[in-house]
Amino acid sequence: MHGIKRTKVDPAAVAARREKEKEKLRAYLALEKQILDLKEANQWTQEALRLTEQFLSSNPEHYTIWNYRRDIFTNLIFKDRTPEESHKLLFSDLAFTTTALKRHPKVYTIWNHRRWCLESMPEGPGNADDGGAEGREGWKMSAWSQEMIIVEKMLSMDERNFHAWDYRRYILSHCPASLKRTDSDELAYTTRHIEKNHSNFSAWHQRSLVYTKLWSEKPESRTKALLDKEFELVKQALWMAPDDQSGWMYHRWLIGNGEDPEVLEREIGVIEELLEEEPESRWCLNSLVHYKRLLLQHRSGEQHQLTEDCRQSLN
């Protein structure tokens, strides 16, 4: 680039760097082959476990070696160790994957291994009547409660990491009953994330899942006042980020099949008002056409006018 002094490239340094990279690649391939040969020979040893950790620290996306690591746990650790030792080693693997997630927060295989660790956690040393950390469920409770803290901390750093959101849903659906969140807690949680970033698709999606479950279990909770409040919330998102799909997708979910013509007409009016301010907004135009088509099922006598409005919107 102009104005930037060029640095003379030392051919010897370049050659040395390339040789170093080749050596790293040779070492990587040799370690991979060594581990896969052990896997093929059904070697369930402590040394094999160590080698898998060494390899996965550099490449956590190798799902075959993650599978081999779990096989070693199943065929060695769980058979030959006490439940307490298995518990400690599983917690160690959770710590190992926590370190990996700091560098690779969107690698599915890491999240998947954490699920397996949680599901494989043995029962505690106490009996069924004991409570707290010393009870039968103590080790599991400790693991599950820790997971929620970790995943929510990760979401505070990257609120749109859909892998973390999906894992959080997994925790909520599988954790012990005492650790589950209420619907109101979940809605408050999504509200905080949405108000922080209106383009947080995962937060909007989680909100729709909470309401779907709530309205399925308690149909009477789906009130007009509540729906109006949700439309107002998403309206703020549409005006703040009219070209982002997140709010629009939630808006369409609220509209559904357009059973209520009054709501359809009201929301069409809201979008037409927004379109005046954002005439190039593709989502505004698409939504207007979609909702006017839904309105046809209630206003068949206005078919010609609504159809013409849709054509005008698309021109």
Characterise this structure.
The chain is mostly helical. 73% of the residues lie in helices and 0% in strands. The protein contains 14 helices and no strands. The chain has helices spanning 11-40, 46-58, 63-80, 83-103, 108-120, 138-157, 162-174, 183-196, 201-217, 224-240, 245-255, 261-277, 282-295, 303-314. The two termini are 44 Å apart.
Element layout with pairings:
Elements: H1 11-40, H2 46-58, H3 63-80, H4 83-103, H5 108-120, H6 138-157, H7 162-174, H8 183-196, H9 201-217, H10 224-240, H11 245-255, H12 261-277, H13 282-295, H14 303-314
Helix pairs in contact: 1-2, 2-3, 4-5, 6-7, 8-9, 9-11, 10-11, 12-13, 13-14
Task: Briefly say what this structure is.
With 315 residues, this protein is an all-alpha fold. It has helices at 11-40, 46-58, 63-80, 83-103, 108-120, 138-157, 162-174, 183-196, 201-217, 224-240, 245-255, 261-277, 282-295, 303-314.
Q: Which term fits the overall shape?
A: extended
User: Largest sheet, described in full?
Assistant: none
Number of strands: 0
Mean model confidence by pLDDT: 89
The rounded Rg comes to 27 Å
Order of secondary-structure elements: HHHHHHHHHHHHHH
